[in-house]
Amino acid sequence: MNIPMKWLTDYVDIDSDIVTFTDAMTMSGSKVEGYEKLGEDINLVVVGVILEIKQHPDADKLVITQIDVGSEVIQIVTGADNINVNDYIPVALNGSTLPGGLKIKNGKLRGIESNGMLCSIEELGFTTEEFPDAPAHGIFILDQPYELGMDVKKIFGLDDIIVEYEVTSNRPDCFSVLGIAREAAATFNKAFKYPEMVYEEIKGNPSDYASVTIEDEKLCPRYIGKIIQDVKIAPSPKWLQQKLRAAGVRPINNIVDITNFIMIEMGQPMHAFDVETLEDKKIIVRKAKEGEKIITLDNEERTLDSSMLVIADAKKPIAIAGVIGGNNTKITDKTTTILFEAANFEGTSIRLTSKKLGVRTDASTKYEKYLDPNNVEAATNRACQLVVMLGAGKVVEGVIDVYPLKRLPVTIAYNADKINRLLGTNISEVEMVNIFKRLEFSVNQEARNVIVPTFRPDLSCEADLAEEVARIYGYDKIPVTLATGTPTVGKKSFKQKIEDITHIVMEDCGLSEAMTYSFESPKVFNKLNVPEGHELRNTVAISNPLGEDFSNMRTTTVNGMLNALSTNYNRRNEAVKLYELGTIYVPKSLPLTELPNELLKLTIGLYGSCDFYDAKGVIETLIEKFGFIDKISYDPKIEVPFLHPGRRAGILVNGNKELGYIGEVHPTVSDQYEIGERAYIAVVDMSLLIKYANLDHSYQQIARYPAVNRDIAFLVKDEVIVQDIENILKQRCGKILEGFKLFDVYKGAQIEEGYKSIAYSLVFRSNDHTLSEKEINKVMSKVVNGLEFDLGAKLRQ
Amino acid sequence: MIEKLQEIKEGAIKKISEVSDLKKLDEIRVAFLGKKGELTSVLRGMKDLTNDERPLIGKLANEVRELIEDELEKAKKGLSGLAREHQLKTEFIDVTMPAKRANIGHRHPMNVVLDDLKNIFIGMGYSIAEGPEIENDYYNFEALNIPENHAARDEQDTFYINKDIMLRTATSPVQVRVMENNKPPIRIIAPGRVYRSDEVDATHSPVFHQVEGLVIDKGVTMADLKGALAEFARELYGEKVKVKFRPHYFPFTEPSAEMDVSCVMCGGEGCRICRGSGWIEVLGCGMVHPKVLEMSGIDPNEYSGFAFGMGLERITMLRYGIEDLRLFYENDIRFLKQF
């Protein structure tokens, strides 16, 4: 909300400078976003009068003028053709500046000295729309003989400061000059001067002109109609135009300007109907009929539905209530009698109508905030007073006031001790009462309660009063204390600790953390090769998404990860390793009747200088950290549609629970994501990881007896996987096997087609004695037997 | 015999003084003191001496041996020193060649900052609470004193799944769930993802992160709120930071405030980041509205509390001077590696 200081100070005396003023307003709750000093870029532009105009000897289109600027007479050469001797005009003197950074200096034009410039309205930073009377690109002729040499900024209202306030949605009253003035008065403990609203009326009876019926009281709690006769549409006087311009509104004509003025000053939208255009002299506030049409003031035809409130006459809608007027009843040059509408509409209905129709007007923006129906009367009176003042018409006595749903002031009890206890302050009751009075509450000190005015719908309980006290007393004066109370121990849950460790392990493994969006397009399933009907496609869909790309809550984190890899690949970043701890959203049933499952997943993604076993290594490092690596096995037969069928594995705990999977990204999927290198993905379910993670293991004694090493090499068929070999090693060697290492896998010359040579180095150790040759040999022969029997291995000598 | 010994002594000293490397020095040792060495063979001839001569010659022979040994030792020390000196002179590497760094990964900047926040609040006795991102209307709005048709519902431009289920617009529903399930004293922070229907640009994202906090106990005051959050600001931005609390409006707190800190870029002088004001808005806060306490089953006559909330993106952008929020979700490794 932009409010000019000059307008504000009509109603409250402010003697502080602008910095002090705006700081204090911010601290009392009317946050100032900034302020603009008008005319700051205009300097040394003064009133002058033209004494003489002569033709330039060497240029047809130029004239030489002599200008009296008060202190001296100066010569200026100009190309203007709309000036006459004795015209008062704005003169930019030598050394002056104009909007846009233009600087005026003495010089010569076609050999003739020129010591300044005569200004057009554009050169002063305005548009001809703001000054409809000004000649386009001609010199602006002042309307009266101002004092010569006087700064023109005053004439144009440029000696003003426009302050921008951030008004919170609970304070609809502050969307107006008066509302902010009232706040300023309370803040600075000054008197608030309400505008005078005395005006003359002529005899008459409004009901002879029109009648008002409200069909929907909930949506229209109040409607006031006031009749103005003998309307004379004309431009507004300069002071009014200047006020509107300063507030950012373009002057149009006296009646429209008055309604705009009331909206800015009092926060109450108004509308004017041409009474003669009303069918049957009727105004009916009703819901629109389905499909009913109206051409609005912006010349658009609008189709209405039955949720929308309209103002209608006996036959047709004449305005969309609180949003925009209709063309059929608008004020024209021929209008002689008008009905001023000042009404109160229900906020949400206006908001929804405005949204549905895509029309947001100053009026609808105001109504959305739930205005005070008791402000309607004052607004009407102020409008009438202006009509009389401006000679825009004659006010017919009496008023049509339909007010079915009265808003009554609320009484709230206060207890100074309780307020102090909530704030941690020691403010006296007397001071609190003073603050209430400054805010225009009526205080009953005996009963210890206040009656709050109806323009403050935000106040309903004692905590609300505590805030009023606090903000006027000053938030900065509230002490700063550290809470005493019952101590609590700050801590992380086991789950949170596991997540912390996961972050650390991932980073130790060289992976950097990614964050991706939680929603994505349903098209990603095609990109990921996910077949129709696959369970991943059962997504929680957003009913009002920002677009298809943000329309479905993800059921897999892989798309996000592949996008991240793709972004990096396309930017030619080499060797990228990423991880994300992110949530997927899995519906229990569709359509959603209860909240879906939210499952945390660890996702890793790698490309460049890495292979499947790097990805597997990261996962095993993590699982080892959590102490259950012994429970892990791999299932190469899992179905994951976006992974390479020959290079993927399910990660199993205890041989059955699927903790997650690892794999090379399917080449088709890689192509679809435009990743030009082999990329690897692994996904781990964090809830299972947390379930199996064991951070409390006991220490194992370090064996003191020497270790014995044995190597073994054998041939197996290609399809035999080392996991099966290692299971045999573990089973057959028993407790004395300390470790083993696969050190060679070989295919080729000297090896039979369809076979591969595998070599392991085994380490044996016992906790309680030095192993004998005999013991080792016995175990080794068990191993060999096992390999031969179970896997058809042939020992290599 | 005496002459012989004298000769050996002089010969040895001369040879030792001429020797230039350790290997030769060892050869000299063998030549004189070894089993077949000159001095050894002289000593072997001792048995032929008379009883009178033997002690005399024996003493002399020992003196000679000791002298030679000393000389050998001295020479050895000298030569080792030379050799080490030579080694050190000739062994030279280019220390400006590339280091072999451990290839560790990097935390996302928002989580770097979040970890800091968590540590600060854990130090102040807070625990970390979590809750669902897809929420019921009751928790997201109703229980936070935002009834149907409340203006705040529109401001927050909510993503709906259906009439009753939506993506949470703040982490405040977690506070309600905590209040429902725990007895005071409560001290928690609730970090997490939240959703609002904002088009993606440099300062907006339909997905973003909040960190909210809640304290409920007997006798908690607004002065305590100021104290806790001022402490937090000092921990996060340093001792010199100044804080300012301004009145504001939130439906779920009363009184409500926004906290500004003196600009972290210019220290309060006024710069582009703080738009010349010297202050930066970092969080919203207030005393928990009595209706909110009541709805969650906490008696507002017995307990009071405060709540606060801040945007993690914003705090992180301020910390590192990041100007475009989209960088957080692009995951360009060149960006991530900086944190």
Strand fraction of chain B equals: 15-25%
Order of H and E elements of chain B: HHHHHEEHHEHEEHEEEHEHHH
Instruction: Count all strands of chain A and give the number.
Output: 40
Q: Biggest interface: chains and residue counts? A: A-B, 89 and 84 residues
Q: Total domains of chain B, how many?
A: 2
Strand order of the largest sheet of chain A: 28-31-32-36-35-34-33
Q: What profile does the largest beta sheet of chain A have?
A: 7 strands, mixed
Shape of chain A: elongated
Taken as a percent bin, the fraction of beta residues of chain A is 25-35%
How would you explain this protein's 3D organization?
The complex is a heterodimer of chains A (797) and B (339). Chain A has 797 residues and is an alpha+beta fold. Helices cover 26% and strands 28% of the residues of chain A. In chain A, α10 (416-423) packs across α12 (462-473), α13 (494-508) packs across α18 (686-692) and α19 packs antiparallel against α20 (773-791). The mean pLDDT of chain A is 93. Chain B has 339 residues and is an alpha+beta fold. Chain B folds into 2 domains: 2-90; 109-336, 2-Layer Sandwich (BirA Bifunctional Protein, domain 2). Helices cover 43% and strands 19% of the residues of chain B. Chain B contains 13 helices and 9 strands. In chain B, the strands form 2 sheets. In chain B, strands 1-4-5-9-8-7-6 form a 7-stranded mixed β-sheet, with helices on both faces. Chain B is rod-shaped, with a radius of gyration of 42 Å. At the A-B interface, α7, α10, α12, α13 and β28 of A face α5, β1, β2, α7 and β4 of B.
